[in-house]
From TrEMBL, chain A:
One Pfam match: SBP_bac_5
GO BP annotations, alphabetical order: peptide transport
Main subcellular location of this protein, as a coarse class: periplasm
Family statement drawn from the similarity comment of this UniProt entry: Belongs to the bacterial solute-binding protein 5 family.
Signal peptide: 1-22
Name of the protein in question: Oligopeptide-binding protein AppA
SUPFAM superfamilies with a match to the protein in the record: Periplasmic binding protein-like II
Automatic annotation (TrEMBL), chain B:
Membrane disposition: Multi-pass membrane protein
PROSITE patterns the record matches: ABC_TM1 (PS50928)
Organism: Thalassovita autumnalis
Protein name per Swiss-Prot or TrEMBL: Stage 0 sporulation protein KC
Chief place of localization: membrane
Keyword vocabulary terms for this entry: Cell membrane, Membrane, Peptide transport, Protein transport, Transmembrane, Transmembrane helix, Transport
Keyword Zinc-finger: no
Gene coding for it: oppC_2
PANTHER family according to UniProt: D,D-DIPEPTIDE TRANSPORT SYSTEM PERMEASE PROTEIN DDPC-RELATED (PTHR43386:SF1), OLIGOPEPTIDE TRANSPORT SYSTEM PERMEASE PROTEIN APPC (PTHR43386)
Record-annotated membrane-spanning stretches: 39-60, 102-127, 139-158, 164-182, 221-250, 270-290
Intracellular or extracellular location(s): Cell membrane
UniProtKB/TrEMBL annotation, chain C:
Localization in the cell: Cell membrane
PANTHER family listed in its UniProt record: DIPEPTIDE TRANSPORT SYSTEM PERMEASE PROTEIN DPPB-RELATED
Protein's UniProt name: Glutathione transport system permease protein GsiC
Membrane-spanning residues: 9-27, 105-126, 138-166, 186-205, 239-266, 286-312
Keywords: Cell membrane, Membrane, Transmembrane, Transmembrane helix, Transport
Organism from which the protein derives: Thalassovita autumnalis
This protein's encoding gene: gsiC_2
């Protein structure tokens, strides 16, 4: 009884804070307030100090380059202007903004501290908390029918990592954003950026979009994050390229070498091995080691993820109207278990992926545009119902999976299939041993269509991209290769004589999502 | 014959007797014993210093623990910043002082509340006996079957993270040992003659329990409160290390020490972790010394 | 003896039932049910109420609370602990996977801390009041006053990073077959965990040694003129052993709880780090099941201790 009572109290205490400002009209729906917040935060100083110069201050969601509009307002630090805007908007300073984030690193916590101080300086109170548990559900939940916010937070600090630039803005489509209310003008702009595969036409559409969002500030862009690839002095890519390691590109892994150990064996150590199960590659196609070295795609891409040629496909083509796409598979492809890899596998994978909940957004929009598919021998033909600017991008990242092993899967429980305890792939390395949560051992796949890989063995430990173990493991010589976005880790790794860092520009923008929907009175 | 340790002791006692030091002194015997315990006194001094410095933090440092200065981040100790600055340029010394307020509140507050609940139930049910006693005993057994950290984490996962939740969780996990101790004491005291006398005079049960018997059990209760305080302060630090304690926006010792997880900080910025780590250890140590001294002074059966 | 064990079991079993009921209740109180965790939020938005109802029925979620508890309980008794929410892996698989690592670390720490604790505690008791005794008392106090993760991190800083003598974390490397291959990985976490636990053993050993040294038969032995070392070691220590066995027994379960934080510091892939991961990820079935199993371990350990004490010390009556 006592315990129950205690739980009830504990639950009640946990709830009270959440609904304290429930009945108010949402002040963040006023764009002047959003602009004031952008002016109040001194990103230049933050990047200079906290980020040690290892980030680029952002003025829009789209990274710098040929798609960037000129003359965007960067909202450089201007607390007076922020105060003036707040006054104009009639800011009620008794509201305490609920700011959430989902990264566990120290730098994020420090950034929150800085943000709290900067906002406090212009008269905006905020608290911050890290989302735990069902993060996705708390972060994005569509508003209810009366356009009442489905989410509890006011501001969320997070990232948008786009495989295709359209991804930065497609999520704002009316009825699909959990924090930015729909807008007919914006819907028109979204239609424009998806209307053509011609970069010149796309560019203009994107620039108009940037100017539009520059005053709207549905997201306040904070900074562009670089990706840092680290390598130990023991290993050598032998001319293989460097690029966006969060995805897949032609990095020439079969030619990599590593200094042999005392027994003459070449062993490369890396991380991102699984703790409970292997993550399937259709949400994050290239974060985890098995997806990177154990699976092949139809096409391959360069370091900036522009599709460059065939991988499993020998040949591929697209019709002039962009509505018929064909892939011709190489002959004699096999899975790691020796079973032949056929066009049927590819077809099955696409059909299954359409039904798996929560796959990569670029994949999903490509697959949704497919009207019908057909197979003739090694040739796969896709008939598209509408043009998809990213169809080749999708197939340079989407890894087909073996139908003969996964054919019985229920797509709703895709990740729960026993296959993911010891998966079979098609890439240059196959799994030799799984010690779940200890390590996974990979050895070269002898029948690999691109020739057998050089390094005898790749051992992966189950530390992730962003945890403290990266530095510990590197310091003790048990990390030869990996990538990170953690500025703190990079500084530690740089300080080690036996590690070198290769920065890579990636489309990855950290921003503040501003919840502009009115909040519900209570539940 | 070789002089043994026992002989030496008796010699000492005789010398003291002759010097007239062994006459019955005034005041509480337990208090005198405590005063004579050097470690306990050292503990009491350290405890008071840290406690007072935390309470009077604004008088001791002019720095605001939440005031950031990004241009002055990670500065080593200097006259302006006695213990340097942290990663957002906040004064570490001020943060430790202010952090102490919350950490001590969590530790001492939870221990006191656990004692009030545990002893409150233990005295009454222990004195009354019968089904209510059995029920309370069984409930306490259930709580005590869980390894402590497992129970704490289990409750954190159900209730979520907040300062208030943490205190409630500590109270929930800490009342059972207090209850057991109070009950045991009650069982032995309730048969005493003076209790029987009170009962025959028709003094109400509640009054007998809390007014007449409870004071006799205060010694062990105090010991338990101090030891629980130490345990809860360590638990708060441990939970903060796991990222499951008080939310990071609240400065507590555990949250300040949390940065030591970053190996670069561990290797290069000792002032961020060593002082606060030492303060936690010292404070807990002092509380343990006090608890130990209290135990020795209130429990006549314990030797040495 | 047998009746004693049976009687003890008869107390333990209802206890387990009550706790399992509370744990199941806790599971019920946590937000969402199995369906809401199984379906991705995006997919859930596209599902109809009927579909949800069908799924609930298929999973038996529309039965009454007690019926569901009964089904759950029979499953648990048969070793079917349910599935983890994050990956759908059977909880029994996860537990069996992680348990060896935790036991390895725990047993190491238990043996090591008991040895050191008994030796130092005895030493302390024999030299009661001396400088050694006082110094050991203070050191022992320090051992229970330093936050264990802080101690662990400093140990990593010194022995793994600065001196490079030992690996900083992890448990297994491929090809490390023999005990000696694997020894370096356990040394640092094992010793840190042991040292944190030595203080308690030391203190206990000291007071029980003092207790037994003041007993009648020791005085008799002394009077008989037996050499001091013999009296201390053989006579005194044997009697002092009973409380030490009790202590070890009570430490067995705390080792499962006690290694939680150390496992995290040293990336030790045991039950503790799994538990923390589950708490962080709100993987409620896994959290509840590990908690339940740890309670089971506690109750079993206390049963074993009672039996052992009865065996060692004939004065303890089985009652």
């Amino acid at each position: 009884m006592n315990k129950l009572f205690g739980m009830a109290i504990a639950a009640a205490v946990g709830m009270t804070s959440t609904f304290a400002y429930a009945e108010r009209v949402n002040q963040l729906s006023d764009e002047r307030v959003r602009q004031a917040i952008a002016y109040a935060i001194d990103m230049d100083t933050i990047v200079d100090t906290l980020f040690e110069g290892k980030a680029i201050v952002a003025d829009s969601m789209i990274p710098n380059g040929s798609f960037k509009a000129e003359g965007l307002n960067a909202y450089s630090y201007n607390p007076d202007k922020a105060r003036a805007l707040l006054k104009e908007a009639g800011w009620d300073d008794s509201q305490v903004l609920d700011v959430v984030y989902y990264y566990g690193d120290q730098l994020t916590a420090d950034l929150m501290v800085a943000m709290q101080a900067y906002l406090g300086d212009v008269g905006i109170q905020m608290t911050y908390r890290k989302l735990e548990g069902d993060v996705g559900g708390q972060l994005s939940k569509l508003p209810t029918a009366e356009d009442t916010s489905g989410i509890e937070w006011d501001i969320a600090y997070g990232a948008k990592a786009a495989l295709a630039l359209q991804e930065y803005y497609n999520g704002y489509k009316s009825g699909s954003s959990s924090y930015a209310p729909g807008d007919a003008d914006r819907d028109a702009l979204i239609a424009r950026i998806n209307a053509s595969a011609d970069p010149a036409v796309q560019q203009d559409a994107f620039k108009d979009f940037e100017r539009f969002e520059n005053t709207k500030l549905s997201d306040i862009p904070l900074y562009y994050q670089q990706l840092f690839i680290y390598e130990s002095a023991r290993m050598n890519r032998n001319g293989g390229q460097y690029g966006n390691d969060q995805f897949n590109y032609d990095w020439g892994i079969t030619k990599w070498t590593v200094e042999p150990d005392a027994n003459g064996k070449e062993v490369l150590y890396t991380n991102t091995a699984p703790a409970q199960f292997f993550e399937h590659p259709w949400l994050n196609p290239g974060i985890y080691v098995f997806s990177k070295i154990g699976l092949d795609r139809l096409l391959t891409a360069n370091g900036s993820l522009a599709p460059t040629g065939g991988q499993l496909a020998e040949d591929y083509s697209v019709s002039d109207d962009g509505l018929t796409v064909t892939f011709d598979l190489k002959d004699g492809l096999t899975w790691h278990d020796g079973a032949p890899l056929t066009a049927e596998d590819v077809l099955w994978s696409i059909e299954t992926a359409k039904k798996v909940p929560g796959i990569n957004a670029v994949f999903q929009s490509t697959f949704e545009a497919i009207e019908s598919m057909s197979v003739e021998g090694d040739v796969i033909t896709l008939n598209m119902s509408q043009l998809d600017p990213n169809v080749f991008l999708t197939f340079s990242q989407f890894a087909p999976l073996p139908k003969h092993l996964l054919g019985d899967v229920n797509p709703a429980e895709f990740q729960q299939h026993p296959f993911w305890q010891n998966p079979v792939g098609s890439g240059p390395y196959k799994i030799a041993e799984v010690q779940m949560n200890d390590y996974v051992r990979f050895v070269p796949f002898a029948d690999y269509h691109g020739g057998e890989a050089n390094i005898d063995e790749i051992v992966a430990f189950p530390s992730g991209e962003n945890d403290g173990n990266v530095v510990t493991n590197a310091a003790s010589g048990r990390l030869d290769f990996g990538f990170t976005k953690s500025v703190a880790d990079v500084a530690s790794l740089e300080a080690m004589d036996h590690m070198r860092i290769v920065p890579a520009d990636i489309p990855y923008t950290r921003s503040l999502r501003m919840n502009a929907f009115p909040k519900a009175a209570s539940k | 014959m070789k002089q043994t340790a026992l002989d030496k002791k008796f010699d000492k006692i005789r010398a003291m007797e002759e010097a007239g030091q062994l006459k019955p002194a005034k005041g509480s015997r337990a208090l005198r014993k405590l005063m004579a315990n050097r470690l306990a006194m050292v503990g009491l001094v350290i405890f008071s210093v840290i406690l007072l410095m935390s309470i009077f933090a604004p008088l001791i440092t002019e720095h605001d623990p939440q005031k950031i200065n990004l241009r002055a981040m990670l500065k080593p100790p200097s006259w302006d910043h006695l213990l340097g600055t942290d990663r957002t340029g906040r004064d570490v010394f001020a943060r430790i002082l202010y952090g102490g307020r919350i950490s001590i509140l969590v530790g001492l507050g939870s221990a006191l509340m656990a004692a009030v609940i545990g002893v409150g139930i233990g005295c009454y049910t222990g004195y009354k006996g019968g089904w209510i006693d059995t029920l309370a005993l069984r409930i306490s057994e259930i709580f005590m079957s869980f390894p402590q950290i497992i129970l704490v984490l289990l409750l954190v996962s159900i209730a979520g993270q907040s300062l208030m939740n943490l205190i409630i969780i500590f109270v929930l996990t800490g009342w059972a040992p207090m209850y057991r101790m109070a009950r045991a004491k009650m069982l032995s005291l309730r048969e005493e003659e003076y209790v029987q006398a009170l009962r025959s005079f028709g003094v109400p049960t509640v009054k007998i329990c809390y007014k007449h018997i409870l004071p006799n059990a205060l010694g062990p209760i105090m010991v338990n409160i101090t030891l629980s305080t130490a345990m809860f302060i360590l638990a708060e630090a441990g939970l903060s290390f796991l990222g499951l304690g008080v939310p990071l926006s609240v400065p507590t010792w555990g949250n300040i020490l949390n940065v030591a997880q970053d190996l670069r900080v561990l290797q290069n910025n000792w002032w961020l972790w060593l002082p606060v780590g030492s303060v936690i250890s010292l404070f807990v140590l002092s509380v343990n010394f006090i608890g130990d001294g209290l135990r020795d002074s209130t429990d006549p059966t314990l030797q040495g | 003896m047998l009746t004693f064990i049976i009687r003890r079991l008869l107390i333990t079993i209802p206890m387990m039932l009550v706790i399992s009921f509370l744990v199941y209740l806790g599971l019920e109180l946590t937000p969402g049910d199995a369906v809401s965790h199984m379906i991705d939020p995006e997919a859930a938005a596209r599902m109809t109420e009927e579909q949800f109802a069908e799924m609930r029925e298929a999973l038996g979620l529309n039965k009454t609370f007690l019926e569901r508890y009964w089904i759950w309980l029979t499953n648990v008794v048969q070793g079917n602990f349910g599935h983890s929410l994050s990956g759908g892996v059977a909880i029994s698989t996860i537990v069996l996977d992680r348990l060896p690592a935790t036991l390895e670390l725990s047993v190491f720490a238990l043996v090591f801390s008991t040895l050191i604790g008994c030796v130092l505690g005895t030493l302390s008791a024999l030299r009661r009041g001396s400088g050694t005794d006082n110094a050991l008392t203070v050191v022992g106090m320090l051992g229970v006053s330093i936050p264990e993760f802080f101690f662990g991190l400093v140990a990593i800083l010194i022995f793994a990073l600065n001196l490079g003598w030992l690996p900083a974390g992890g448990r297994l490397l491929p090809g490390y077959e023999t005990f000696f291959d694997r020894l370096p990985h356990i040394v640092l976490p094992g010793i840190v965990l042991s040292l944190m636990m030595t203080a308690g053993v030391m203190r206990y050993a000291r007071s029980s040694m003092l207790d037994s040294l003041s007993r009648e038969f020791i005085r008799t032995a002394r009077a008989k003129g037996l050499p001091a070392w013999r009296i201390n070691l053989i006579h005194g220590f044997r009697v002092a052993l009973t409380p030490v066995v009790v202590l070890i027994g009570f430490r067995l379960p705390t080792l499962i709880g006690g290694s939680v934080i150390i496992e995290q510091v040293f990336q030790w892939p045991g039950i503790g780090s799994e538990f923390i991961g589950a708490v962080r990820g709100s993987d409620y079935p896994l959290v509840m099941m590990i908690a339940l199993l740890s309670v089971f371990a506690v109750l079993m350990a206390s049963l074993i201790v009672d039996v052992l004490t009865a065996l060692i010390d004939p004065r303890v009556r089985l009652g």
